[in-house]
UniProtKB/TrEMBL annotation:
GO terms, molecular function: chromate transmembrane transporter activity
Organism for this UniProt entry: Enterococcus canis
Keywords noted in UniProt: Cell membrane, Membrane, Transmembrane, Transmembrane helix
Family: Belongs to the chromate ion transporter (CHR) (TC 2.A.51) family.
Major localization listed first in the record, in broad terms: membrane
Membrane topology, record value: Multi-pass membrane protein
The protein, known as: Chromate transporter
Keyword DNA-binding applies: no
Source organism superkingdom: Bacteria
């Protein structure tokens, strides 16, 4: 859609759009927001980046605000509570599936450190109450130190 709008109107070349899309994908955050900000900046400078960023975020913000208002109005409704309970089970199943996929992917890399770290992180958080930020910091240090010894 962006290609049709910006390339066909002559605002960007196809190569420029692909370059910006690559940068947007490697930057932290939502790709659509990143790309909107980058395209806005390229075409209209800082004001374009600001307007593009707001335009990319505002619809979702409004929608989530409305959903939040609806939730607070209906959170005591027994039917809504049952639906949310059912969704909890579905989300748990999705997380378990994701963990299994990640484990299989890590097993193929043949690096025992990568298999052990998630287990240690779970134990540290679930049984010893270690804050997730400390776990992430420790995992980063362990991977950086252990990564030099493990083949890539």
């Amino acid at each position: 859609m962006m290609e049709k709008y910006f390339v066909d109107h002559g605002d960007l070349s196809k190569e420029e759009l692909l370059e910006l899309a690559t940068i947007a994908q490697t930057s932290p955050g939502a790709i659509a927001v990143n790309l909107s900000v980058l395209v806005g900046r390229r075409i209209r400078g800082l004001k374009g980046a600001l307007v593009s960023g707001i335009g990319a975020v505002l619809p979702a913000l409004i929608l989530l605000s409305l959903i939040s208002l609806a939730y607070t109005a209906f959170q005591t409704n027994p039917l809504v509570r049952q639906v949310l309970k059912g969704m909890e089970a579905a989300v748990a199943a999705i997380i378990v599936d994701l963990v299994i996929d990640m484990y299989q992917s890590l097993r193929q890399q043949k690096q025992p450190l990568l298999l052990i770290l998630p287990i240690l992180a779970f134990i540290a958080n679930a049984f010893f109450g270690v804050h997730p930020l400390w776990i992430l910091a420790a995992a980063l240090v362990i991977v950086l130190i252990g990564g030099k010894k493990c083949p890539a």
